[in-house]
Amino acid sequence: MGGSEDDEDVDMGDAANKKFKGMSVDDFLGGGFMSGESDEEAMSEAGDDDDSGSEGEASFASVDDLEDEGVAHKLELAKLAEKDPEFYKYLQENDKELLDFNLPDVGMDEDDEDGDDDDDDVKVPVLTTELLKRWQKAMLEHRSLRALRRLLIAFRSAAHMNDDEHASVWTIDNASVYDKLITTALRYTPIVLEHHVPYKTLPDGKFKPPTQTPKQKILQKLTLSFFYNIIHLLEQFSEHDMILLAVNESAKLVPYIVGVRKAVKLYLKTLLRLWSSAEDDIRIAAFLAMRKLTSSSDESIKDMVFKGAYLTLVRSAKSTSAHTLPGINFMKNSASELFTTDHATAYQHAFAYIRQLAVHLRNSMKVKSKEAYKQVYNWQYAHCVDFWSIVLARACHYEAEIENGGLESDLKPLIYPLSQVTLGAIKLISNSRSYPFHLSLIRSLVHLQKHTRTYIPLIPYIMPIITATLSPSARPKPSTLRPLDLETNIRAPAQYIRTRVYSEGLLEEATYILAEWLGTRQVQGSIAFPEIVVPLTVTLKKGVKHASGGKEAGVVKGLLERIDEGVKWVEQRRKGVTFRPKNVQQVDEWERSVNLEETPIGKYIKTQRKIREKRRKLVEKARDGEDEILEDD
User: Which UniProt key words apply to this protein (predicted)?
Assistant: First the structure.
C-alpha cells in the first residue's frame, strides 16, 4: 500500500481521482465504476417494466385442456381393452400406473366458471369458504389444474382488491375467507406444480428448471402471474405471519421462474428489502430464499444475488448503534454464507470490491485532507473490511483445507491484499480519537488469522494503543462520562480525550484483542511461541514499569503472567522434540496437536469472555431500564 508504484498504478490512481471526485461513500462503495451500468439501475430495472405478468388470467383456460387430455386418455385405454385385451392385460401386470390414471373429480360445478366471466353485466360472484374447500380437495386428491387455475385467479383478485385499475373477478367480503384464500394459494400451488412439472435437484445441491414441455409452457404463464402477485402482496402486507408464509412458500417456486430475468430481479429486490429491515425470522426466511436463488445453475442469477447482497449490506451499514449492530452482524454472517457457496464466482466480486477499498484508501492518502480521511474513517469502510474478513475466514478455514486434501480455496489469494489494505487504513490517522476505528479493523484481522493458516503481524498496530494509555505523560483526568462503547463508536467524542474512563476502556479492549491474537494457532499454537513473544514482553514490561496508574498496569500484568506461562508451557512440550525446524511436516504435525483451549492464553481468553459477556448483559439492562445501576466487577 505504501511502497513504490509502477506507471500503471499511477495512471489508475489519477483516473480514479478524476472519476470519483465529488462521489459520496455510498456511491463509491456501491461499485458504480466497475461497469457501465450502475447498481441502482441494475436493481431497479425490473420496476421499470410495464408488464407484471398479470395479463391473461381469464385466458388461462388452456390449463383446463391439460385435464381434458385425461378424459381422452381414459377413452383410449377403454378402446385398447376391447381391441387388444392381451396387451391390456400386460399393462395391468407391468404398467399399472398408466391404467390407474385418475381423472380429477374437481368437486365443483360448471357454475364456478362464473368467476372467470369478464362480462360487466354479470354480477361478480362472492368467494366462499365452501368453494375454497372444494378447490382444496380437488388439488389434494387429484392435483387438479382446473382447481389451481381458479384458485390463482381468485388469488389475483385478493392481491389487487385495493387497486382501482384492476377489475376483480371475485368478491371477497370476509377477512377469514381472504386469509384462507391467501394461505391456500401459497401452500397448495407448489404441491400441484411439483406433481405436474417436477424439477431436478443435482447432487451438488443446485437445481435444474423443469424440462420445456407443452404442459410446462402452458403452466409457466400461470405460475409467473401467481409469482408477480405474491411479490405485489409482499409490498402490501403488514401482518408478520402472512409475510413469513409468503416468503417461505415463494422460495419453493424459484425453480419455475429462474428463466425469467425480470421476475428474478423483482423477487430479489423484495427479498433484499426484507433481509435488511424486517423482523428476525422474516430476515432468515428471506436469506434462505436468496440462497435458493444461488442454487440455480444459471450463473448470472448468482452474480445478481452476490452483488445485491453486498450493496444492501453497504447501505445498511452507513450508521451503527447498539440497536442496529446485531442486524448488521446478521447480514454480514448470512451474506458470507452466500458468497462461500461458489468460491470461483465469489472471487470475481471479492477482488473488485477489495480493490475499491484499496483505491479509496489511496485517494485519501494522496489528498491528506479532513474530508479525504472521512472517506476511509467511516462505518461503511469498517464493515466492508470486516465482511470480507468473515468471507475469507469461512472460505479459507484451515480445517476445510485439511478435509479437502490440502486443496486451497480460490479466495485464498485475497487474504494478503485485504490485510494490506486494512493495515494501511489503520496507519492513515494515528491520533487517540481514531483508536476505536483501529481496534475495529484489528478485530477483523484477528478473526481472519484465527480461522486461516495466515500469520498477520499485528503487534506494531496494537502496542501503540497500549503504550499510549500506560504512558506517564498521558495522565488521565477524572470524568463522570459513561464508558464509551468501542464496538459502536469508531471515533471518540472530543470530551472523552485524555479522560480516565476512555483510557481504561481502550487499554482493556486492546489488551483483550492482543490476547485473542496471541491465542491463535499461528502464535500460541506455534512451536516458536517463546521466540515470537520476546519483543512483545519486553515492550509490555517496560510500559508497566513506567505506568501512570495502578489499575491500568494491573490489566497488562495479568496478560504478561499468562504469556510467561505460555512460554513455559511450550518449552515443556518441545523438550522431547527430536526433529529440526527445517522438517516442516513434523513441525506442522506438532502444531496441529496443540489444543488451544488448554493453553494458558486459551484459558485466560475463556475467562475474559465470560467477564465481558456478563458486562454486556448489564449494559443491555441499563440501556433498556434507566434505573439500572452498573457495578464494577
Answer: Nucleus
23-47: b (≥16 Cβ within 10 Å) or e? bebeebbbbbbeeeeebeeebeebe
Please identify which residue in the block is written with the cell numbers 409490498.
235
CB 309 within 8 A of CB 338: yes
Helix (H, G, I), strand (E, B) or coil at 194: helix
Beta bridge partners, 201, equal: 207
Residue identified by cell 500484568 is: 557
- DSSP assignment of 131-163: HHHHHHHHHHHH--HHHHHHHHHHHHHHHTTT-
CA dist 302 and 107 (Å) reads 43
For cell 385418475, the residue is: 102
Give per-residue burial for 95-116: e unless 16+ CB within 10 Å, then b. Answer: eeeeeeeeebebbbeeebeebb
Q: What was the pLDDT predicted at 370?
A: 86
Residue with cell 506461562: 565
**Half-sphere exposure (CA, 13 Å, Cβ side) for 434?**
19
Helices (H) and strands (E) in the chain, counts: 29, 2
Contact yes or no for 422/438 (Cβ under 8 A): no
d(CA 291, CA 349): 17
Query: Which amino acid would we find at residue 281?
Result: D
Q: Do the strands 200-201 and 207-208 form a parallel or antiparallel pair, or are they unpaired?
A: antiparallel
Longest distance between any two alpha carbons in the chain, whole Å = 108
pLDDT at 361 over 80: yes
Q: Which of 51-55, 432-436, 622-626 has the lowest mean pLDDT?
A: 51-55
Q: Which of 234, 315, 304, 233 is nearest to 264 (CA)?
A: 304
Q: What is the pTM of this model?
A: 0.82
When pLDDT is cut at 50, 70 and 90, the band that residue 90 belongs to is low
Q: Which of 559, 43, 465, 471 is nearest to 267 (CA)?
A: 43
Q: Which three cell numbers stand for residue 352?
A: 473488485
Inter-residue contact 222 to 63 (CB < 8 Å): yes
How far is it, in rounded angstroms, from Cα 439 to Cα 453?
22
For residue 619, count other CB atoms closer than 10 A to its CB.
16
For residue 494, count CB atoms less than 10 angstroms from its CB and return exposed for 0-12, middle for 13-18, buried for 19 or more.
Answer: exposed
Neighbouring CB atoms inside 10 A of 86's CB total: 6
